[in-house]
Amino acid sequence: MNPAEWLHRTALRDSARPALLSADQPVMDYVGFRDAAARLGTGLVAQGVEQGDRVAIFMGNRIEYLIALYGVWFCGAVAVPINAKLHPKEADWIIENAGADLTLSDDKLGPDLSGQWISVDGAAWDNLLSFDPMSRPVVLDPDDMAWLFYTSGTTGKPKGVMMTCGNIAAMAYSYLADVDDVLPDDAILYAAPMSHGAGIYNFMHVMRGARHVVPQSGGFDPGEILAHGKSVGSISMFAAPTMVRRLVDHARATGQTGEGLRTITYAGGPMYEADILDAVDTMGARFVQVYGQGECPMGITVLPRQDVTDRDHPRWRARLNSVGTAQSTVLVRIFDETGAECPAGETGEIAVRGATVMKGYWQNPEATEQTIRNGWLWTGDMGAMDEDGYVTMRDRSKDMIISGGSNIYPREVEEVLLSHSDVSEVAVVGRPHPEWGEEVIAFVVGGADPQDLDAHCLERIARFKRPKNYVFVPDLPKNNYGKVLKTELRARLTEEKIT
Predict the structure, then answer these.
(1) What is the model's pTM?
(2) Which residue segment(s) compose the domain that 8 sits in?
(3) pLDDT in the model for residue 34
């Protein structure tokens, strides 16, 4: 099923229903949304885009983002959304790896790209939308790729996750079955990047003819979100835990309770218990947690709002600290290092199989074979499942850092720092941070100046990946095989209270 078919059907059924809103002002109804995407589909074909070709999207949150996505799908191509926070050099790498000959961008980000791009702010975009619309979307099968999502790996270079039409459909169906229902008068607000989870949650809202709201800021602003709750009403949104905390803090400080916010789905890492308790006390039963990853988008487990708000069950606190139970379209197991299933309560690696699991990594069969074994996706996350099926994450088997809901892989930062002439060795770890979840700390062997290292990083990677502190050491702790002992470095951060 081509995702654009859902837009086409909704436009036929509810043509005049408001679809795209800029802040709280309607910009397009569903027939206008469909026609814009259908025209873009024709325009992309005129640019030489064929079925299965990759088209990159590198821009911030805006109305045109949704038109771009559905225009790409209308002509049967594959969308390659790229986080707008990435450095243009990082975006160039993704574009080249994906084999995308065309990028849809904006006047802010596009000029720094090296390949062919079209700005949604200019006449070339208007020209793409001037073509006659396609009569209906190209037919795609469940195994056809629709979204190529780049997620970093332990090698430091991003890997392209092949999301098929079937993966996307299963994710959407699981949302409706397990996370929340969507009614036609509802709205989804895009405060987190549309290249990631927030954008992936557009599908079920298109299916049901709900409204799509892009805030004026194009991002996360607590006051703006609370205002839209009142002016737009019945809003759902995706948020990282750090965003939830900031929203709750602002609501409490201003005497608000989140009026008009229907559902806040949080993911990107479990919330601290105190934070989610405070969130429910301040804003009520509006919160749902999901656990997923790029390789199984938003679709591994769910902790529904009744579990988030329950204080009567004998094990309510343990459940609140879990990531919930398996979603409807997948199986979830805990395996030990031999591949044997762990008994209830025993920690092992979380594994998942089912309709939301990716097709594989783009042009990387070795990584695919390492990650998907005997049909099971090994997530790299360590956890335990209790006798009732609730999964609690214990730790990550990889050294990934989650800061503000964004994934940061230490080796990628380490490789950049090691390219500096005054750095001989480096190890990057995460340190707990009260607002962002974790922050990046670099232990450096060498005589570099911290400001020079900052500038060096900012020329090569996104700002949010840059270390927040550099700790200069004479050497790094290693085991007998020469592997850096990051556990000792994390312990040192705690014991010595390095600032």
Answers:
(1) 0.86
(2) 3-383
(3) 98
